[in-house]
Amino acid sequence: MELSVYLNARRATIADGSQSWPVLGTDFKPDVRHLVSRVGSTPTGFRHHLTLSRLLLGDYNSGVNQKAALLFCVIALVGCSSSPETNGPNIQKAAAPVEPPTKPLITMNDPNAKAYFVKDVSDGADAGGWRWTFDRPELRFFLKKTEGIHAVADFSIAGDTMKTTGPVTVSFFVNDKLIGKEKYTKAGTYHFDKPVPADLLSADKATTFALEPKPIWVAPGDGKHLGLILVRAGFVS
User: Fold this and answer.
1) Which residue in 180, 204, 209 sits closest to 105, CA to CA?
2) Same domain, 122 and 59
3) In degrees rounded to 5, what are phi and psi of residue 72?
4) Which range (6-15, 21-30, 62-71, 106-115) has the least confidence?
5) Would you say 184 and 155 are in contact if contact means Cβ atoms under 8 Å apart?
6) Is the torsion defined by CA of 29, 31, 37, 41 positive or negative?
7) How far apart (Å, rounded) are the C-alpha atoms in residues 91 and 100?
8) Nearest to residue 115, comparing CAs of 128, 132, 96, 129?
9) CA dist., res. 134 & res. 110, Å (int)
């Protein structure tokens, strides 16, 4: 990098790392008119690469040392007010705050879906808007009423897992109370809809909804468990 400083119609050059300032003379008065930092031939903002340890001033008299130190301070101030760095640290954008789980029914591609998960639902949604679940996926909801409510779920059972597990029985729970059980003998997409007694629901605290498939598919290599492919779940009136 070459840093060119135009001082009283004279040019002084700071070489990168190995050379010190040129002799400026005892009558030198700094007058910074132009400051350019170059990498190759492309002008960039001043990158704050200068440090006092790189100003090798030991060969000059104290008057020159003071003038050179003054010049360093002027250059540092100019650098601080220059254009933003193009190769500075990559500042990550703050993640959007998670909203409370206020919806009674949630789809797996909802941006706020994770706020509803209690356990056993994968972090990432597929491009098709579904998520893998594991042993016993459970979600939470805050309901405004408890009368006339149905628990609903849309999900699929994958053909590849069913080749190993055979028929799958899914049990459905609201606040850990069994409300239904269905046996599925073929791979495919399914819809569950069951009325829920009001005394099983909560209007003043979270209501949980869980699905438990059995048998569960276990990966032969790493032993990972995969259950249902969940699209949406929750409550409707």
Assistant:
1) 209
2) no
3) -60, -40
4) 6-15
5) no
6) negative
7) 27
8) 96
9) 19
H or E stretch including 72?
A: helix 62-80
Domain that includes residue 176, residue range:
105-236
Answer whether residue 154 is part of any domain.
Answer: yes
Whether residues 10 and 63 share a domain: the answer is yes
Residue 154 to residues 67, 108, 226, Cα–Cα distance (Å): 77, 10, 17
Q: Are residues 226 and 123 in the same domain?
A: yes
Question: Hey, which residues does 194 pair with through a beta bridge?
Answer: 151
Distance CA 125, CA 122 (A): 7
Lowest mean pLDDT among 19-28, 52-61, 123-132: 52-61
Whether 209 and 192 have beta carbons less than 8 Å apart is answered as no
Residue 181 sits in the same domain as residue 65: no
Alpha carbon distance, N-terminus to C-terminus of the chain: 69
pTM of the model: 0.60
Tokens representing residue 159 in the block: 């053909």
Residue 20 has φ and ψ, to the nearest 5°, of: -100, 180
Q: How far apart are CA 202 and CA 155, in angstroms?
A: 25
Instruction: Indicate the residue type of 53.
Output: S
**Total number of domains constituting the chain:** 2
Domain assignment present for 155: yes
Nearest-angstrom CA–CA distance, 202 and 175 = 9
